[in-house]
Amino acid sequence: MFRRLDPFGNPNVGVYVRATETHLFVPMGLTQNNRDDLKEALGLEPVEATIGGSPLIGSLMAANSHGCVVADFATDKEIAFFESTGLRVMRLEHSRLNAAGNNILCNDKGAMVHPDLSEKTLRRLEEFLDVPATRGTIGAVSTTGSAASATNKGVLAHPLSSPEELDFIKQSLHVPARIGTVNHGHGLLGAGIAANSHGAAVGTRTTGIELGRIEEALGYLE
Question: What percentage of the chain exceeds 70 in pLDDT?
Answer without folding.
Answer: 100
